[in-house]
Each structure stands twice: as C-alpha cells, then as structure tokens.
Amino acid sequence: MLGTGSDRWLPARGNRSPRAPREPMEKYQVLYELNPGALGVNLVVEEVETKVKRVIKQVECLDDHDANKALQELMPLLKLRHAHISVYQELFVTWNSEISSPFLCLVMEFNKVTFQEVITDKREAKEIIDAEWLQNVLGQVLDALEYLHHLDIIHRNLKPSNILLVSSDRCKLQDLSSNTLMTNKAKWNIRAEEDPFHKSWMAPEALSFSFSQKSDIWSLGCIVLDMTSCSFMDGTEAMHLRKSLRQSPGSLKGILKTMEEKQIPDAETFQNLLPLMLQINPSDRITIKDVVHMTFVSGSFKSSCISLTLHRQLLPVSITDMLLAGNVASILEVMQNFSSWPEVQLRAMKRFLKMPADQLGLPWPPELVEVVLTTMELHDRVLDIQLCACSLLLHLLGQALVLDPEAKVPCNQALTSTLLRCLRSHPEEEQLLVMVYSLLTITTAQESVSEELQSAGLLDHILEHLHSSLQSRDVCVSGLGLLWALLLDAVIVNKGPLEEVPDLISQVLATYPADVEMAEASCAVFWLLSLLGCIKEQHFELVVALLLQSIRLCQDRVLLVNSAYRGLASLVKVSELAAFKVVLQEEGSSGLSLIKETYQLHRDDPEVVENVGMLLVHLASYEEILPELVSSGMKALVQEIKERFMSSQVSDTSAFSKPGLPPGGSPQLGCTTSGGLE
Description:
This protein has helices spanning 64-74, 115-125, 131-150, 179-182, 185-194, 196-199, 213-229, 235-244, 251-261, 267-277, 288-297, 317-323, 328-337, 342-354, 366-378, 383-403, 413-425, 430-446, 450-455, 458-468, 473-488, 501-511, 516-532, 540-553, 558-574, 576-583, 591-601, 606-619, 626-631, 634-645, and strands spanning 10-13, 28-33, 41-47, 53-60, 90-96, 101-109, 163-167, 170-173, 585-586, 589-590. By secondary structure, the chain is of the alpha+beta class. Among the domains are: 10-109, Phosphorylase Kinase, domain 1 (2-Layer Sandwich); 115-309, Transferase(Phosphotransferase) domain 1 (Transferase(Phosphotransferase), domain 1), CATH 1.10.510.10; 314-446, Alpha Horseshoe (Serine Threonine Protein Phosphatase 5, Tetratricopeptide repeat). The chain starts with 9 loop residues before the first strand and ends in a 33-residue tail after the last helix. GO terms for molecular function: ATP binding; protein serine/threonine kinase activity.
C-alpha cells in the first residue's frame, strides 16, 4: 500500500527490470504540459537515458485503495498487441506530498498529431476530408476496436484526441481507461464544468457512469459525424449537436441532409450508418461487426487494414478444394496467394493434417511452419484457424519425434511470439490454451527461451489459469507441464509469483486426488522449485506431505518417484523440519517405511536407488533423527545399497548432472555426518 509523507510507488511494465529506480518519475524529465484531459494532467516528458519522448497522464485518485484498484484494472492492457493500438509503456502510482494525494501515472506513446488536429485544420479551411484517407483510417480504427471488443475490453474514452496519427496514413487508438477512473463522479463533474468539450463525445448512459461496448459505438459515431461534417460546421456547433443527440436524435437528420447537399463523399453510407450508431438506447445500437459490415463488406469502403478482409464473401468450397488438390509445395503456394481468405487457410491446414508423414517434409518442414505461423498472425481472431493451426503444429512435432526422438525443433521468436499472441487473443478458450501450452512445453524443453517467455508474462499466465481453471483437468496438466519446462533451465528474475505455487498445487492435487499424471507433473515442479529455492519455510511441511502422498499413490511410475525423492532430498538437505516430516508416522506409516517399499520395488533401477540414497544421507545429517533411522532398519538398507551398487553407475557423479544438480554436488552413499549411518 502507498503511505503518506513519502514518495512510494507501485510500478507495472511489460518488461520489468530487477533494478527499478526508487521513484519512477525520476527517469523522466518534464518538458511541458498539454491541455488537461477529462481525468487529469497530461505531461510531455523525455526519458533521461534514451531521450525518447512520452506522454504521462497523471490522474489524482481519491485514496490509496482507489489508485491501486484502477492500476489493477489497467494491468491487462499492458499485454495488448495490435498494430493500431498504442499500448501503455508503463503504469505506476506516486504520492504527491504537497497535496497529500496519490496519483496514477499512465505512460503513453508521444505524437503531436491526432484526429483532433486533422479535424480542426479541415474545419478552419472549410475543406472536406479526403474520402480515400478517411476510409483507410476508419478501417484501422474499426479493426482496433473490434479487437478490443473481442477481448471484452471497453475503451471508455474514445474521442478524436485519443486517436494518434503516427504517419500520414496510419493511426492508433490510445488512452484506454478503466471503470474506476471513469466512474469518479466528483472528478467528472468538476472537469465537465471546466471544459464541456471533453464530455461531449460520451454516450448518454456514460453520463450516468454506465459503460459498455455500445458506449464505444456512440463515441465512434460522434467521431465519424465530426469528420464528415467539419467542412461546414464550426467546433461549437458540432459540440452542441453531439450533446443534443442524447435527447433529440432527430437533430441528426438535418446534418445528414446537408452532407448529401454538399456532396460529402460516401454520404449515402453515412446516412444509413450514423443513425444506427447514435441510438439513445444502447440496446438499439449496432455492434462493431455491424459497422464493419455496412462499410467494408456490403459497402465499398477500402482500407489497408488486412484483418477487414475477414468479412468478405467466402470462396466456394468446390473452388477451394480444387486449388488444394496438389502436393505440399502447391498447397503452400495457394495459401500464400490467398493469405487473406480464412476459409482457404483452414481447409489447407486440414488437408495437411490428413497427409502421410512422408509427404510433409519431416522432421520439421520450415517453409510449412512459416506459412502456418503467418496464417495464425493474419487471422489471430479466427478461433477455428488458431485451433487448426495448433493441431497441425502438434501433429508435425509428434510425427517428427516419432521418426527421430532426438530431433531438434527450432523454437525461434516467430513461433513463441505467435503462440503468445494466440493466448492473448483467445484468453478463455480452454482447448486452445491446452494446445498452446503443449506446444510451448515441447519447444521450450528443446531450446533455451525460458527467460524470453518469462519476460512476456507467461509464468503469471500459467498461475492465473491454474487458479481459475481447477475444474479443467487438461488445463492443469498442461499448465504444470509448461511450468516445469520454464523452470528447467530458467534464471528466475522474480521468484515472488512462484511462492504461491505450493498452495496452488495443493488445490490441484486435492481436486484430482487419484490422478497419477497430475501427481507426476506436480512432483516434477516441486523438485525444480526446491532446487531454485522457491519453496519458503512455511511450505516445507506441506510440500513434503504432498510428495509422500504422490509416491504412495503410484510407486511404479519411475518419473514420479525420481522427481519426488529428488524434491524430498532437496528440502531435507536445508530443513530439519522437513526431515522430521518425512520420519513421523502419518496415515498408518512413516516416510521411512515408504522408502523401504520404494527400494524393494525399484531395487534394480540405479537412478531410483541413487535418489533414495541421497534422501537417506540428508536425513542422517540430523543427530535427532539418527536413532529413528537406526531403529527402522535404515542402516542395513544403506549397507545393502553400498554393496550392490558401489561399482555401478549409482556412485557415478555424472548421474547427478541433471538441471539444477551440479556434477559432484550430490552426497555419496555411506558418508557420515555427525555419526551418520555408516
């Protein structure tokens, strides 16, 4: 929490640095102040190190709780990825000691020109905005807004000054707001009195602090109206018109008639479109998809925005099948020539799924994979394409590994970034989530990309879905598998999020108490967490109990047994509390009797015996436990292990050259510590 009397802060970034400055504002130099917005002050700043200009919106909040609530609401926006959305560069809360108030700071992309400047210039010159340009940028705005609405994100603050013109023919939405900020009644009333212009873009229901996707439609309708009428209406008239439409939608008819009389380009389309966007009742307004259809599908509008081609007429199935009747090379050529036709891409990938392995160019056909990834990127919002593409990639991986278990699958940035984008575009689709997790697990285990995926927030993503999808077995198994793969070779920069994993896995295992595969995945994660020092002392007893429980569940699973005993040995090595938990009687038997059972079952498996022996040696390092070990017959067991495996690979230190276990770093059976077992 933020405290009074000091400059405390809570940062949030897409890529977090382990060495953040004490006060985030220290890394920015304020250049000048822009006109205040509806919610706060806008500062043009320059990063001290990079000299890059940014805009920081400073929003005064009611209290610490209000500031942090707004911050948490805005956090998901850092993960947005769209060509026509300007994502926040950084979010943080500062405390202003002079007025004893917290401020939420939103760091945005800086650009001098917005739609507001374009409209103002044309209004002053009484010129009509070029029709081709308007269609192009409108297409980009529609594509960006459709992307947000697809993710159930509401812009809430859509107006011309929040649409950047980053080049002559390319724009970006910016300054997305949160529910907490936009429902601050006192702040809105004060700002509305100071400058009613800002409030004039808001939908009727938004004035009562009710926001929905239809509120964005109203605001977009106001923007389109202003852009098409700026050549014959001054700014004050336009503002009064927008405000009057909330009570009297009939006032729009006169403006639409004037547009026709003055031969405004595409006046007929706007005459049909605007009344449907500017309905007083939100439920009567059309959706963003309807707007796209009226302008770019049934209408004649054109835009450079590729995604809008998703709404065009479908290619007949017979023609598609005829085009896809050839071999791999010819099908890839068709996919490239018809890249903007989703139905062609989908049928092509389904055709690949049915092809024999010897025709696919295995073990890993780079050209095919490249085309599939491009298709996923171009059609990232088409769920069927994402599902089919992931199925195909998993099919290719499976076939490749069947042909050659040692085959290396290149895990390049294109693959990982495409899969991560897929997760962001379809956050609630469990089937897709499981497939993406599986793909990332396989590829991450082969290439060292763990740190890159950590920086992209994948650890947080996995933990969030393990928590929210406990009832989905497939999500839990695949999530634990990917978590293991990320931890395998990772340099963990921030161990904080991992501290909650023991409690989380405890919930998973409680939900699936007899699921051997779930227990196996959990033990593997616990082992790596113990080696990385990510299990806190208060969780030692819990983790030991869960590891012993998993061994009892299925002792014949070698992978489970090895992971569990390695995890136990790692914890016992650093904690006498963990050691006592192993020795104490529970559920009618102690961990020592379980060790005997495991040894008898796997007595001819050198790796299992080695891990059992490693646990025994660490237990023997505690004087208080030695009597219990001796009375339980552990001394005889250790002696038997020494006699049977002294000259075998059990005593070979290379057996411990696993991730996280340095060569020579393991204890040797028979060593004595404080009067040990020998």
